[in-house]
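Holo model, FE3-S4 cluster. Inputs:
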Amino acid sequence: MFLNRNQELMLKGEFGPAVQKAMELLVALGDAIGAEKLIPIKSVHISGISYSTIGDAGLSFVEDFASLGARATVLSTINPAGMDLIRWREMGVKEDFHSKQLRIINSFKRMNIKTTCTCTPYLVGNKPERGSHVSWAESSAVVYGNSILNIKTNRESGPSTIASAITGLTPLAGYHLDENRKPSVYVKLIGVKVASNLIASILGYLIGREMNRGIPAIIGLNVKNLSILKSLSAGLATSGGLAMFTLIEEKGNVQDAPTMKIDYNDINHLLMDYPLIEKPDLIFFGCPHLSLPEITYIVNLLRGRRLKKGMEMWLFTSRHVYSECLRRGYVEVVYNAGGKFICDTCPVVMPTYLIKGRKFITNSSKAAFYLSSKHEASVSLLDIKTCIKEFTERKI
Ligand code: F3S
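Output:
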């Protein structure tokens, strides 16, 4: 791979050991994926933050970089951690987990990386201009970034994003090249109305499962609602290796591409994999983390109502969005209905002992997939409106 003079000096250690280590990682990655050179990027989003996911090996990796004096040179944010950084004790997080999770977070702080702890970086200020090259991990954010924000990123890993944060560079390959951003399969929807996050999330999951790679062009899906597009992105990234989709009005310049058809039976089949379980006890919304409009919708449905006996509700969002919810009085409404907000984390990346034996209802195919496969939890899929109608009652 070609390196310019400055990059060669970085690789030789002229800019310090952290930059050298980061360059070694990026050059190895670039060579492996056939990149011709490294290019500058505008932002980074790092995944693999929860101690529950990365363990002691990941903790050492991050601490070693911080000890070498690594500093982010571009705007860099991080994915959810394994606990709410403030209310961890109330959640039941054990001391040992807390101290190791804090060491991870503090290492990122030392590296000048914003400890946003959310999978929706674009809702907390990491939203580069259209056309920008970036280095993002977190598959749902990658799909949303490439498809909706029109930024350019591959599906990066935790280590490669840390290296990119330090150097401000990424290998020029994959989705950074315009020729790799063309649709390869049409998706024709037959009688499928994408009117909720649940349906969007399932649709994404089905397309991702069917294709695994390439770029789907979904025909006639005229959706502008960002929450729905966020759910579609997350679903699509869950079941395959996709990193991008596109919405088109009709078959255009992909005339020769094959067509995949999806109808309501397909949606129902997936729903049947997650039927309503007996005596569910925990409603979970916020995979990906809830946006303010989504929370407004939930809060309006909850006003004057409370959860039925034996049922809990957890709403997951970024601390940034949570502050606005506090200001608007939303936190009080949710609390009065018997629910609670949890920030900085999500059930998928929490330690299993926090959710063992719980019976979830969620509206996210990504959450359903990982909760059942990673934590062996029982999960039902239901949309927000039906869920609140079924499991809350009017206050007297
Ligand atoms: Fe975000 Fe956790 Fe879902 S990181 S996308 S809420 S699995």
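The chain has a mean pLDDT of 96. Residues 79-80, 119, 140, 234, 287-289, 316, 346, 348-349, 366-367, 370 surround FE3-S4 cluster (CB under 6 Å).
Archived with the compound record.
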